[in-house]
Amino acid sequence: MPESTAAWRTLANALTLLRLATAPALAGAILCEAWLLATGLFWLAVATDFADGALARRHGQSSPLGGFLDHLTDALFCSVGLAALAQQGVVTALLPVGVLVAFTQYAWDSRVVQGKALRASWLGRWNGVAYYVMVAVPVIRNALGIGWPWDWLVQAMAWALVLTTCASILDRAIASANGRDG
Hints:
By secondary structure, this protein is an all-alpha fold. 77% of the residues lie in helices and 0% in strands. The chain has one domain (3-177): Four Helix Bundle (Hemerythrin (Met), subunit A), CATH 1.20.120. Helix 5 runs parallel beside helix 7 (151-177). The chain is flat and about 45 Å long. The model has no long low-confidence stretch (mean pLDDT 88).
């Protein structure tokens, strides 16, 4: 087997691909209001997100491409989950679009297509965490059958995240125009 093919066949990449495979299942569970299933899929995604990088580092298999695939999978997982929540009227549809735009800019600005490592900004990192939280809050709330946080608060959180995503996109664009790292 060619060396480039063997480099792809790692446990870390398998975990990343498992997380990617959970995205459509998460969307289906949200759309069917199968909140316990959606919660289980969410926690599976979180577990694989923590484990894939640690495994890659432990086995000396970290690479710019692996980092890119990890972040791409995070962006797709969150975007798909947020799109399903938007379809249910839980969050604004601008949020999943913003996640994809921010990730595309992040990848392009980092020159990942040239084999370079991704360069995260402070705000971009926190937004990445917040995207997962934004999926988790309504999914887990509904799985537990509790009424808090209230719908209006979830909507406000989503709109705040739209604003911080726009701020991150603008910050990265300014940094790139000025020749600074993002």
